[in-house]
Amino acid sequence: MRGPLLLCLVILGVPLAGFAASTALRAHNDAELVSLASRGKVHVAPSEIPGLTVARICQSPTMAGTGPCEVDSQLALMSNVSLGAGIAGLALVGLIVLAGQVARSNRALLLAVFRPGLYVAAVVTIALVIVHAILAMAIIYYGESALVERVHGGLILAIGLGAIAGVAGIAKSMFGAVQKAETGAVGVSVSTNEAEPLWNHTAGIARKLGALQPDHIVVGLEPTFFVTEANVRTPAEQLTGRTLFCSLPLARILTIDELTAILGHELGHFRGEDTKFSGHFYPIYRGTTTAIASLQAAGGGSMRVLSLLPAVAILSFFLDRFAVAENLHSRSRELLADQAGAEATSARTMASALVKVHAFASLWGGFQQASVQQMTEGKVFKNASTVFAGAVASAARPEALDGIAATHSSHPTDSHPTLADRLDALGVELSSVTADALAIAPAPSAASLVPETEAREEALSMMYQQLLARQLGIQPKVEQSRGSNWSPVRQCLNCGTKVLPKGDGQCPRCGARMA
Question: Which of 18, 53, 163, 449 has its CA 20 to 30 A from that of 398?
Answer without folding.
Answer: 449
